[in-house]
Amino acid sequence: SLQDQFDNLEKHTQWGIDVLEKYIKFVKERTEIELSYAKQLRNLSKKYQPKKNSKEEEEYRYTSTRAFLATLNEMNDYAGQHEVISENMTSLITAELTRYVQELKQERKSHFHDGRKAQQHIETCWKQLEASKRRFERDCKEADRAQQYFEKMDADINVTKADVEKARQQAQLRHQMAEDSKAEYSSTLQKFNSEQHEHYYTHIPNIFQKIQEMEERRIVRIGESMKTFAEVDRQVIPIIGKCLDEITKAAESVDHKNDSQMVIEAFKSGFEPPGDVDFEDFTQPMKRTVSESSLSNSRGDGKSEPKFSSKSKGKLWPFIKKNKVL
Amino acid sequence: SLQDQFDNLEKHTQWGIDVLEKYIKFVKERTEIELSYAKQLRNLSKKYQPKKNSKEEEEYRYTSTRAFLATLNEMNDYAGQHEVISENMTSLITAELTRYVQELKQERKSHFHDGRKAQQHIETCWKQLEASKRRFERDCKEADRAQQYFEKMDADINVTKADVEKARQQAQLRHQMAEDSKAEYSSTLQKFNSEQHEHYYTHIPNIFQKIQEMEERRIVRIGESMKTFAEVDRQVIPIIGKCLDEITKAAESVDHKNDSQMVIEAFKSGFEPPGDVDFEDFTQPMKRTVSESSLSNSRGDGKSEPKFSSKSKGKLWPFIKKNKVL
């Protein structure tokens, strides 16, 4: 019946709203996952940042440590892009759809309200028609009874003409009343049939049409949101790609020659290798006699310690280039 | 001093290992974040899957619900790509670097062991030289004393020639011993100077060179890992892009006309709008007399209920196309 169809549509459109609300919830949970992911990446980046004004910070002079710092900073931007996903999904999908689902609920309510009103109206018309028909039926019976009474009086020779005339007038009156009821019933019936036609061929189809359009708009809307869902995600890809390019660039700028040169510069000392240790000749007292040997090496300048700690302008670097030495 | 330089290098290379281990830890934490993100996305996808053999599953006939299902499945693949990031970072970075850092620690240990051995060797040589010098000095003093004793005896007229001769021989012996010590000292000195030169110009520079090369390999290695870090991430972008394209495609396949047609098909009933209600004429008994009016509308077929529940082959769909009606 029509009522079954309304019930089915009421259930189906409620299901449509449930689907929409489920989708909103799904996207909301996705935004929370993105936020949590971004937060973890930001914390990771923060955790490995050099402590300000620390020795650690000074160590970030090397290309390798600078590349790590760049990686950390890019991871932070990378995290930011997942926040962008979250924010855009919230503003372009969940917020929009939440507003829309409220409108949709309102609109749905109004269509089914109109449906119920139309149903009630046609039922009221039906009751009026029934009442009109019953009145006509009753009046016909009354007219019939009055007619029979008149005929009975008319056939009775013991009845006065005045009484016959009274019964005839009564029968005519009743007949007229029945005719009036018939006219009213006929008019009510015509009105009902017209209303019923209007109901089934205009009002109800209009309501169904509006519900169908509402449904179709809901479907279009959820389709658009699903497209936005992918689009919001796709939009950050080039920026994430740039973050990765920056990490690659930083990694490629790692220069082992530069870094080891910096270590050499940092650790070069005023230290130079000690020269040869001189010969110390203790034979001077012996020189008083003619010695049988002569030590050519003897310069007797009294040095007795190798220059393990001597300071000099010529600096020895901890890393001596092999080719300089060999 | 050289020892300071070794100390500095020992500290610096330890710092290098710490940096490497810190980077390994950083990447490990990144892989954990990726895994947790992937797990959350997978759970999200799973949570919204239709329950098997449920009414819900049947509802996935509509293009809109199928698009949602496609979104869920693509999110699952999307999650899988973040697992790929995690797995590749683990195998290509953390596992590799963990192995490498063990080798590096071993190599570093061996270089500083060589350095200490060289230092100890040159100190031992220095001690030998000192001992040799002291012996020479002592022997010179002994020779000097023997010479003075001989000279004193030689000048003493009360001493026998035999005693003088004995003192002369003793002085000559002591002189010879001093000469021998001098020769040995001289030889030790030459050996020491040669060793010392070797130490400062060959052994130590070689060790420094090896440490420098080790350092440079470490820097190259961390740079390569940083590049891999970005590369592993970049590799999944096209696949994630494909997931997003599939979501877009599914969203674009949402067909509101198709879905509303399916609703119409599902809910169409055997119900058709009732026809006009017929006029019921209760005036038949009145017909027995000549009635003053005649009701043209009367067919008297006795119908008294509108076909609110009539069954018919001609079906009315809940959504009637407006153009069919108006």
Structure, explained:
Chains A, B: One of its GO terms (molecular function) is lipid binding. Chains A, B: Residues 1-259 form the F-BAR domain. Chains A, B: Residues 288-313 are annotated as: Disordered. With 326 residues, chain A is an all-alpha fold. In chain A, 78% of the residues lie in helices and 0% in strands. Chain A has two domains: 2-254, Substrate Binding Domain Of Dnak, Chain:A, Domain 2; 255-274 and 306-326, no CATH class. Chain A starts with a helix and ends with a helix. At the A-B interface, helix 1, helix 3, helix 4 and helix 5 of A face helix 1, helix 3, helix 4 and helix 5 of B.
> How much helix, percentage-wise, in residues of chain A?
over 70%
Strand content bin of chain A:
under 5%
Number of strands of chain A: 0
**Helical/strand content category of chain A:** mainly alpha
CATH homologous superfamily of the largest domain in chain A - what is it?
Arfaptin homology (AH) domain/BAR domain
| Number of alpha- plus pi-helical segments of chain A | 7
**CATH topology annotation of the largest domain in chain A:** Substrate Binding Domain Of Dnak, Chain:A, Domain 2
Average pLDDT score of chain A: 86
Tertiary shape of chain A: rod-shaped
Q: Indicate the radius of gyration of chain A in whole angstroms.
A: 55 Å
The end-to-end span of chain A amounts to 106 Å
CATH architecture field of the largest domain in chain A: Up-down Bundle
Multimeric status of the protein: homodimer
Secondary-structure element order of chain A, as H and E? HHHHHHH
